[in-house]
Amino acid sequence: MEYLSYFCYLITRPMEQNALKRLPLGIQTYDKIVEQNCLYIDKTAYIPKMLQTSKYIFLNRPQRFGKSLLVSTLKAYFEGRRELFKGCYIDSIEKDWTAYPVLHFDMSLAKHLGKEELKRYLHHLLDDNEQRFGLTSNSPYTNLRLANLIQAAYHQTGRQVVVLIDEYDAPLLDVPHEDEKLDSLRHIMHNFYSPLKASDPYLKFVFITGITKFSQLSIFSGLNNLKNISMLPEFAAICGITEEEVVTQMAPYLDRLAEARRLTRQGALDAIRRQYDGYHFTWPSPDIFNPFSLLNAFQDRMLRSYWFESGTPTFLIQMLRHFNVLPSMLKPTMTMASDFDAPTESMTSIMPLLYQAGYFTIKDYDDISELYTLDIPNQEIRIGLMASLLPNYVQQDSYKGNTTVGLMYTAVAKDDIEGALTLLRDFLLTVPYCDNTNYEGHYQQLLYVIFTLLGRYVDVEVRTATGRVDMVMHTARTLYLFELKMNQTAQAAMRQIDINDYPARFALCGLPIVRVGINFDAASHTITDWQIQKEDRTAASPSLAGHS
């Protein structure tokens, strides 16, 4: 019964019974959500849980997952603003609404700053907090200013101080593998936060959020009692929106989306589940929807890639190259928690960044081996990643590339592989010469990216009893086996499929099997010929189609 109390609407003023509350798009401040009578998914049941867990709490979640709203909610709670929590869980159990002095440091605007710029920004944050307590300081040392501020707030109010730090790692996100810049910026941040340990007698509660996990949160050196709740099951849904919250609190918005998309309610639920659901930050965990994308989808009544399009993943693409990660390697992976819930500045694989930034998530866990299965959470991220990787294979010609992919989508939806390959061949003839393309693997990855963009299940180097199939793709009606060759012939590719009898590996798949042999030419950088062979289970011999 307690869990059900998470799912209450926040009602602050009379409304018409059938009116829908405004969705809080672009609003990350709790009091603004209340004042503007926006929809709020109640997370206040987590407040007493955090207070019972530790005095010092750390939580990491991907960007735009509700961390700032959670921090703002804590600020309003610790300031004793009970009038803002009418109808919420915390109002039903809290008896003493004590107003504590709250110091709020939002580091989200400290991105892309150099050493001196970061120092000025920290002084600016201190100025704002000092003014609220009537203080002024000319000290050039941010650590001394913070220590004095905490003590002054304590002595002025007679109550311990609450410190809320949002996006603590924002100044460091761009430079995790640039040692000189990282060390310089990390030293500044470590110096700024250093008073927190020594100020323990004056502190009531410290809450820190971020996207990534730095080694032992090294910029908080000495704060050895900082409790990381990021992977604790009891805090699995502290940020984001669960499916139960969707169907109980957001049902009218779901119905409105269904009507606009000409779907049933279940059809609309299935659609948003495929597009935005699938996040798990621990195991077991309820399914978590990306809140940014979900709210935008309900507002626009469309199913676009809102979260992925809101931030250019340039750094991620650079790191994928740095670690030599091919598109086809972005698939389910079994790993220990220490391999993904790990410091990003010293990572030896891409997995910590993929997980902590929200591009991979937990999909399963084995109690015996203690291995987690990580994978791309949903269709929005899968398509977004492949769209970002496509320019690596088409020399940044995104306009023609996107158009070709759109036309190929129509062809593949009709199981017209002949038409799809014709489109791809003609497009590749227009692509400027790229370095490092004269090998079969380049075109294998290109096809993997394109077919994934088409929303198809596709895998590469699929093992059989007699070898490996270059690529396997299936649609709702057909299973395709692709063999690729460079500077040979499509007939040679088809011969390899036949000699190794690759179809035997998939005989029980329940779908018609189509063999596709493709030859690429190093000189023209495109497809020169192909053969398509469909097994006819009712005829003595297969049908054969080809092009050259």
Low-confidence stretches: 1-18, 537-545
Terminal CA distance reads 68 Å
- Helix content percent band: 25-40%
By DSSP (H or I, 4+ residues per run), the number of helices equals 22
Sheet bearing the most strands, described?
Answer: 6 strands, mixed
**What is the CATH class designation of the largest domain?**
Alpha Beta
Which assembly state applies to the chains in this document? single chain
The best one-word shape is elongated
Count the strands? Answer: 16
Average pLDDT taken over every residue: 88
Strand order of the largest sheet: 11-12-13-14-15-16
Cα-based radius of gyration, to the nearest Å = 27 Å
Beta percentage is 15-25%
Can you put this structure into words, describing what you see?
With 548 residues, the chain is of the alpha/beta class. It folds into three domains: 193 residues, Rossmann fold (3-Layer(aba) Sandwich); 146 residues, no CATH class; 150 residues, Trna Endonuclease, Chain: A, domain 1. Helix content is 39%, strand content 16%. The strands form four sheets. The chain has a six-stranded mixed beta sheet with strand order 11-12-13-14-15-16, sandwiched between helices. Helix 5 runs parallel beside helix 6, helix 17 packs antiparallel against helix 21 and helix 19 runs antiparallel to helix 20.
Task: Give the arrangement of secondary structure elements.
Blueprint: H1 30-35, H2 46-53, E1 56-60, H3 67-78, H4 89-93, E2 102-106, H5 115-132, H6 142-157, E3 161-166, H7 179-193, H8 195-198, E4 203-210, E5 227-228, E6 241-242, H9 243-249, H10 251-261, H11 265-276, E7 288-289, H12 291-300, H13 306-309, H14 314-322, E8 333-335, H15 337-340, H16 351-356, E9 361-366, E10 371-375, H17 379-389, H18 391-394, H19 398-413, H20 417-428, H21 440-453, E11 457-463, E12 468-474, E13 479-486, H22 490-499, E14 513-521, E15 526-534, E16 543-547
Parallel strand pairs: 1-4, 1-5, 2-3, 3-4, 13-14
Antiparallel strand pairs: 6-7, 8-10, 9-10, 11-12, 12-13, 14-15, 15-16
Helix pairs in contact: 5-6, 5-7, 10-11, 10-12, 17-21, 19-20
